[in-house]
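Predicting holo structure, zinc ion bound.
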Amino acid sequence: MSVTVQCPCGNTYDLKDEFGGKSVKCPNCGTVNVAPAPPADPAFNRDKFLLRQKAMSIKEKYYVWDEGGKVILYVERPAHFFRGLVAVFGGLVAGMVVLLALLAAAGAAGTGTLGGILSLVAFLGCVVTFIAVTATLAPKRHVTFYRDDTKRERVLEVLQDQKLQFVTATYTLRDPKARVLARFHKNYLYNFFRKQWRCSSPGGALIAVAKEDSIILSLLRRLLGPLFGLLRTNFIILRGESDTVVGEFNRKMTLLDRYVLDMSRDQRRQLDRRIMLALGVMLDTGERR
Ligand SMILES: [Zn+2]
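Done. C-alpha cells:
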C-alpha cells in the first residue's frame, strides 16, 4: 500500500503508507507537502459485521461477512492440540517426580507427625508442580485476522499476553506492522457475575467496555446454562466510562454459531472498527475455554 503526493510543482510521487499524514519534501523542488492519510481498509468501512464460527474443527475459525453476504475476512485461533497434550504430559511427569521424592522423605521420617505432614506436603507439591509445569509448557493461543482463508495477507492479530491467567487476562491487538492498536482486559472474578471486557488505548485510556446485556440474564445463564439458546449471551458495548451504548454483539438464534456486531449507534464512527471487530471475536473465543 502506498500514498500518492501531488506537489504544486506538478511532480507526483508515491510513498509508503507509514508516511501518511506526515510532512515530506518533494524530491523535485524541495517544497514541503503533507502526505495524504492512507486509504482506510474497506473491510472495516461499515457498521455491521456478521460472524460465523466454522463448526467441527479443533482450531477456532470464523468467517466475517458484510450484510450482502460477501466474505470480508477470515479469523483463526489455533488450539495447538498436540502441544497442549505435551504440556499436560510434562506436568504429570514433573508432578510425579515431586510426589515420589517427597513421599520418600516422608517414609524416612517415619509414621509420626513429621511423616504425616511431609506426606501432605508431597501431595500439595505434586498438584502445584503439575499446574505450574503444564501452564509453562502450554502454548499461547493468539488470534489472527486474514484477508481471506488463503491466509496470505494478515490484517490484524490479537496476542494472548500471559500463559497463566489467574484473575485477569489481557490481550494486545496489533496491525500487520506490529503497531499496538488496543489492549483487551477481562477479570475472571467479575466475569463470574456478569461478563465484561475492557478495551483501552495503547496509552491506557479506556476506549470501550463490553458487558453482558443484563445482570439478571447473566445470573440466570450461570444457574441454568444456555437453555437451548433461549438465554444466549448478548453483549452491549459502552463508550469509555460512560453509559452510552454504542454497539451490540448478539448471538443469532440458529443452530450454528452466528453473531452480529452492530455498531450503527456509533454514527460518526468514533470507535475504530478494527478494534471493535477484534473485541467481538474475543467476546466469543475468549469466553469459552
Ligand atoms: Zn515539487
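The chain has a mean pLDDT of 86.
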